[in-house]
Amino acid sequence: MLQNAEHERNQCCEYCVRWFRSTEALSQHNQAKHGNLPAVIPSQNQAVNASSPQPPRPFHFQDQSYEGFSLLDNSVIHDRLISKCHSSERLKKEGYVLGEEAPEDSRQAAITKQTIMATHPTSLDPKRKAVALDCEMAGIRNGESEIISICVIDFFTGELLLDSLVKPHEPIIDWRTNIHGIRPATLAIAASHGQVLRGWEAARQELLKHINTETVMVGQSLQQDLKRLRLSHGKIFDTAILTAEAVFGTGASFSRRWSLQSLCADLLKLRIRQGSNTHDALEDAMAAREVALWCICYPDKLKQWAKRARKKHKVEKAKRAERKRNRRRNTHYSTPVPDEGFEDYGYYHDYGGEEDEEILRWEDVIDWEMWPKSPPSSD
Question: What distance in Å separates the CA atoms of residue 132 and residue 154, rounded to the nearest whole number?
Answer without folding.
Answer: 6
